[in-house]
Write a structure and sequence with these properties.
six-stranded antiparallel sheet, Beta-Lactamase, 13% strand, 778 residues, six-stranded mixed sheet, alpha+beta, disordered C terminus
């Protein structure tokens, strides 16, 4: 073919035509090269933008997980800070003389230090006395506290997080100490005390490393100017203070920032995010080459396209000029040996080779288009999740139209569905139930409005309804949303034989407010803890503006007494009463959950007082498991089945191991002669040991002082007599060796939260109800 084209053009009679063809061939290449370059930079720019957005989402997850860890530790510390033992110690005028309260305080601080993860040390500080209680060192002077902690306490804060750099050369930028200070108020005129908790800063970087994000490095900058650095990756070879970009980030007040900097001779992507919770600044660094490695394929493809264009130009000029023909042949050999596209047969001429490469390029483009179409459902689902969970910006409107999100009407409502009681099912069964509920939801929505249904990353099913009413009222929209939710709940229960709980957010105008509606729907789901599961919950009906927190201390004390006496039957009854008391007096799901957290903490403290080795009774974190349960019935069932039986079993095992001890002889005598006058000298004489030794040995073996145990035992017998006999209150008081009935009534009410008469009346009402319930069950 080259020879046929060459013959008319090689004659000397047409030199002008040959020059025109050469120039035209070269000029035709220019716009194609420009379009190729523009296409490459446009594609790479969008790709990099997607990478940056993914990094921003990763940073947000890091910040949220660390903030959640701090908030959880703060809540747990709060539960212990409200313990009456700490308030009583802070109120003492001479704390050094009250050994009993001091011992209880040290035991409580020690349980906090042992039970709460990532705590290095716990202190109780009384600035008015210049004293500090430490579970390891006892009662010491305030000099054990760092100066910056004492300065913070002098400002009388209700709570504050402190951080301080400790001088050390072991790791880059040294070690740090993170401290949480919580004020403990007193009922009298005594100045407040402070619970001080020191945390291990490596816990924050453990959150980061557990995410397995590859060759990244995390740096945390606190408002006080201290820097926490995880030196495991060592991407930065020099101290952080030597890098100008890091100084810029430390001085910045921006909410978030993304930049690319030359660091130690290599480009580095820097992601910066500031926490709304405590003002900490999170900075992650990742080599730019790790982010753009996928662009190498795009660059190689673009390079091949440019080579093909140059090949076309050189071939055309080579056809028109013999002196360029040899150079053209060399270039063709280079292209034929270049990898990345299907290799053309060596027997083809130059134009056939070029056509072959263009065909290969077209084939690759078709494959890429098919891959995009296959990924469209996943891309659409990710966009919907971002729409429901991320701050809205104007570009989302265009993307919503691209992904076929309903935008025909103005008002939107979000529903969240949670499948109840799927725990224990296999993952395959759970996925099948979710798939079935999604299909049911789509069918129900199609009868009423435009909408879409997706499964969120947190396991909930989210429904976005675009109401089709032309001039809707918010009341009508709420009614329609309730109708859709109730149909979904009813059909799922009848067809799948499972229950679902549905939370409904308020209706808002515009896509920009769907995130708010989604948050309200999630908030409504949390009220399963109060209202129960298998229901439709609307945030506007269940979220109270104000709520009173009336924690049932009396039931807690009864439960602790029964725990120390290893009475599991009574514990089960008290757990039901505890849950019922919460339902009757408070409406906030947070108050309900915090009340159960406090009950568990008090029970663990009581168990620890009996046996310091009892922290190994449970093989998982009770607080984490509690947060997974979404109704009070599930929590009570879990407490009865998994939490308290191991505690009672541990106490029984410990009691059985004392069968041959001298203290067990005294305990057996007390249980047989509880209705006689009992005293420590009498029992010490009976087992032939000194009184002081008996008191110490009794506390070590039983976990309670002799007087506490005797009162708890007699109150347990008093409840039995009130439930099973018609004895007068005065007769029961006399039988239990109280000198008058008023003293007996006072002690009984202190331990049970009600008078003996009220207890007998309540038990008499509950007994017929329990029999009726048993008859229904049969």
């Amino acid at each position: 073919m080259l020879s046929k084209l060459w013959t008319p053009l090689a004659s000397g009679s047409k030199p002008e035509l040959r020059k025109v063809l050469i120039i035209a061939s070269l000029l035709a290449t220019v716009p194609v090269l420009i379009m190729g370059a523009v296409a490459y930079f446009t594609a790479s720019g969008r790709f990099i933008e997607e990478i940056r957005e993914a990094n921003r989402q990763t940073m947000l997850q890091i910040q949220q997980r660390i903030d959640e860890k701090l908030i959880t530790l703060e809540k747990i510390a709060l539960q212990n800070a409200v313990n009456p033992t700490l308030s009583r110690f802070v109120s003492l005028s001479n704390p050094e003389e009250d050994f009993e309260t001091l011992g209880l305080t040290m035991t409580l601080l020690n349980s906090i230090q042992v039970l709460i993860e990532d705590i290095d040390a716990v202190y109780l500080y009384r600035p008015d006395q210049h004293l500090v209680v430490s579970p390891n060192r006892g009662l010491v002077g305030e000099e054990v506290l760092p100066e910056y902690v004492r300065e913070a306490v002098s400002l009388n804060p209700s709570k504050v997080w402190l951080d301080h750099k400790l001088e050390s050369e072991l790791v880059r930028d040294g070690f740090h100490q993170v401290t949480f200070v919580r004020r403990i108020n007193t009922s009298g005129q005594t100045p407040a005390g402070y619970l001080i908790v020191n945390l291990n800063d490596t816990a924050f970087f453990r959150v980061f490393s557990n995410m397995k994000l590859g060759s990244r490095e995390l740096v945390i900058v606190t408002p006080s100017g201290n820097v926490f650095a995880d030196g495991s990756s060592s991407l930065l070879q020099n101290p952080l203070a030597q890098y100008p970009f890091f100084q810029e980030l430390m001085n910045s007040d921006e909410r978030e920032m993304l930049m690319t900097e030359q660091v130690d001779g290599s480009p580095m992507s820097i992601n910066y995010l500031k926490s709304n919770y405590n003002g900490w600044k999170y900075v992650t660094m990742i080599p730019y080459s790790d982010l753009t490695q996928h662009l190498q394929k795009i660059k190689q493809t673009t390079f091949l396209i440019c080579l093909l264009l140059v090949l076309i130009s050189v071939t055309a000029t080579g056809v028109l000029s013999k002196r360029w023909y040899r150079a053209l042949q060399s270039l063709m050999d280079l292209i034929k040996n270049k990898g990345g596209l299907a290799e053309a047969p060596h027997s083809q001429n130059e134009f056939a080779v070029i056509r072959h490469y263009f065909d290969s390029l077209h084939e690759n483009n078709e494959i890429l288009r098919e891959q995009i179409q296959e990924s469209m459902p996943l891309l659409r689902a990710n966009f919907i999740q971002n729409l429901l969970t991320e701050p809205f910006h104007s570009s989302m409107i265009e993307r919503a139209e691209y992904y076929n999100i309903p935008v025909q009407h103005a008002y939107y409502t979000v529903l969240c569905i949670e499948l109840d009681n799927t725990r224990g099912h296999t993952e395959q069964d759970s996925n099948l139930f979710h798939y079935a509920v999604i299909n049911i939801s789509k069918e129900m929505i199609s009868h009423h409005a435009e909408g879409l249904v997706i499964r969120m990353h947190n396991g909930h099913i989210a429904i976005l309804i675009n109401h089709d009413a032309e001039e809707p009222s918010l009341a009508d929209l709420k009614t329609k949303s309730f109708l859709v939710a109730e149909e979904i709940r009813s059909v799922a229960e009848s067809l799948l034989h499972i229950t679902v709980t549905i939370g409904i957010g308020r209706s808002y105008e515009g896509l920009g407010q769907v995130r708010t509606s989604y948050g309200e729907a999630l908030e409504a789901l949390k009220y399963q803890l109060v209202e129960g599961s298998g229901r439709v919950l609307f945030v506007g009906q269940i979220k109270a503006e104000t709520s009173s927190f009336a924690y049932p201390y009396d039931l807690e004390q009864q439960l602790l007494t029964c725990l120390k006496l290893a009475n599991m039957d009574k514990i089960s009854t008290l757990l039901d009463d505890f849950a019922q008391a919460l339902r009757a007096e408070i409406v906030s799901h947070e108050h309900v959950r915090q009340s159960f957290i406090q009950l568990i903490a008090a029970s663990l403290r009581g168990l620890y007082e009996i046996d310091p080795n009892s922290t190994r009774v449970h093989d998982y974190n009770l607080y984490e498991r509690l947060n997974e349960l979404n109704t009070s019935d599930k929590i009570v069932g879990w407490l009865k089945a998994e939490v308290y039986p191991p505690m009672v079993g541990h106490i029984n095992t410990r009691t059985a191991s004392r069968n041959h001890s001298t203290i067990q002889k005294a305990l057996d005598y007390m249980h047989e002669h509880y209705d006689t006058d009992l005293s420590m000298p009498q029992l010490a004489s009976m087992i032939s040991i000194p009184v002081s030794q008996f008191s110490h040995l009794f506390k070590v073996e039983v976990g309670m002082f002799f007087s506490e145990y005797l009162i708890a035992l007699r109150m347990e017998k008093a409840r039995e007599l009130l439930e099973t006999t018609d004895f007068k209150i005065s007769d029961i008081a006399e039988k239990l060796r109280y000198n008058n009935s008023q003293n007996f009534i006072r002690v009984f009410k202190k331990m049970n939260g009600m008078t003996p008469g009220e207890y007998r009346t309540r038990h008499a009402k509950e007994k017929p109800e329990q029999k009726a319930a048993q008859g229904v069950n049969k």
